[in-house]
C-alpha cells in the first residue's frame, strides 16, 4: 500500500453508493444465454469460411479496385476465381 493511501479503508466505502451503471448500452453489450449456452451475435458461421491471407499487390491495382467502392476485396476474389477458372 502506498503511503498516501494508508488512511483509506474498506469501511469508508458504502456498498450502496457503488452501483454498476446498467443503462441501455450495458444491456446492448451484454451476453445473451439460452439455458447455459451463450447466444452468439452476428451472422452464423459459414460452412465454407474464407481463408485470411496476406498478399502484396501493386499499389495502382489496389487503388483501381478501391475506387469502385465497398466490397473491393470481394471483387478481387471474384477476378482471381475467374482467371483461375474456378
Given the C-alpha coordinates, what overall shape results?
elongated
Proportion of residues in β-strands? 5-15%
Distance between the termini: 66 Å
Rg value:
26 Å
If you average the pLDDT, what whole number results? 85
Determine the number of helices (DSSP H or I, runs of at least 4 residues).
3
Protein model, in words:
Helix content is about 30%, strand content about 5%. It is elongated, with a radius of gyration of 26 Å. The chain has a domain at about 45-85. A hairpin with a 2-residue loop joins strand 1 and strand 2 (about 35-40). The model has no long low-confidence stretch (mean pLDDT about 85). The termini are far apart. The chain has about 90 residues and is mainly α. The protein has a two-stranded antiparallel ribbon. Pfam families: BrnA_antitoxin (PF14384). InterPro entries: BrnA_antitoxin (IPR025528).
In short:
The chain is mainly α and 86 residues long. It contains three helices and two strands; from the N terminus they run αββαα. It has a domain of 40 residues.
Write the SSE topology.
Layout (H helix, E strand, L loop, with lengths): L23 H6 L2 E3 L2 E3 L19 H8 L5 H13 L2
Antiparallel strand pairs: 1-2
InterPro entries: BrnA_antitoxin (IPR025528)
